[in-house]
Amino acid sequence: MKLLLLGDLVGRPGRQAVTSYLEGAGFDLVIANGENAAGGFGITPKIARSLQKAGVGVITSGNHIWACREIFPVLEDYSAHVLRPANMPAGNPGRGWTMVKAGGLEVLVVNLQGRVFMNSSASCPFREADRIIAARQPDVTVVDFHAEATSEKQAMGFHLDGRATVLAGTHTHVLTADDRLLPGGTLYISDLGMCGCQRGIIGMDPEASMERLLLGRPGRLKVSEADGLMVNGISVEVSSEGRAVGWEVINERL
3-state class of 217 per DSSP? Predict the structure, then answer.
C-alpha cells in the first residue's frame, strides 16, 4: 500500500498546493491535516469536499477545528472521514478516529492532540490512544499527533511503538529531519511540516506575524499569498503485513 501523509494545509495556497501535487499521484490513501485550510483557521464543509475530490481520503485536525462552526455536522457524519482530536471533552461533535479500506488493507486513522504548551482541556492523549487501538484490530494504524512539544511527540512515538504503523506529528508547520523506524517497527516523524506559501512565517503573512512578535500587539494573522507554493509530508510504503517498509520525506517546491 502506498500511503501519503501531508502536513497542515494553510489557507488557499495550501489547498492549491495539495490539489496540484495529487494530480496523477496514485496513492492508495492520502491523509492530510486540514485544521488551517480555511483562511488559516478551521475548515468548512465546502473545503473538505474539495480536498476529498482532489484525492484526500481522511482529513485530520487539531486545536483550530472549532474555528468554523459549520463543519460540526460534517464531523458528526462519520462516513465523511473528517476528524477532530479524539481526546477532546465529551459532548463535542464528531470523533477522533476512522476506519478506511485502502490497498486491500483495513486502516485505522487516529487523531490526537497534545497537552504540553497547548493551553487545552484535552484529556490524556496516551490513554486515549490505548483505548482506541485496543478496541480495534486493523491491518494498519496511522496516528496524527497534533502537538507543540517535540518531547511529547517522541514520547507518544515510543508509547505506541509496535502498535502503530506510522506516528506523525503535526501543528508546528515546520518539517523535521528525525524520520526513523523505532525499535518496535513504528515509523516516526516529529512534524510533517505544512502545505502552503513558502514565503511566509509558518504559512502566514510575515508582516502581521512580525508585528505581534516585535511590538507585542495582538492582531489577526492572515495567510501569506506570495508566490511560491510548497508541499510537506511523508510517503510510506506499507507491506501486506501492515509494516512500514520504506518511506520518503516530501519537501516539494511547486
Answer: coil
**Which of 193, 223, 195 has the alpha carbon at shortest distance from 207?**
223
The per-residue pLDDT for 208 is: 85
Q: 64, 81, 171, 173: which is the annotated catalytic residue? A: 64
CB 116 within 8 A of CB 77: no
Q: What is the mean pLDDT of the chain?
A: 96
Is 64 an active-site residue? yes
Task: Say which DSSP state 164 is in.
Answer: B
21-43 pLDDT, tens digit each? 999 999 999 999 999 999 999 99
Closest CA to 3 of 130, 136, 139: 139
Instruction: Identify which of 169, 168, 174, 234 has the alpha carbon closest to the alpha carbon of residue 202.
Output: 174
How far is 191 from 197, CA to CA, in rounded Å? 17
Answer whether 75's CB lies under 8 Å from 94's CB: yes
pLDDT at position 217, please? 85
Domains of the chain plus CATH, in order, are 2-253 (3.60.21.10)
- DSSP letters, 35-92, are TTTTTTS---HHHHHHHHHHT--EEE--TTGGGSGGGHHHHH-GGG-B---TTSPTT-
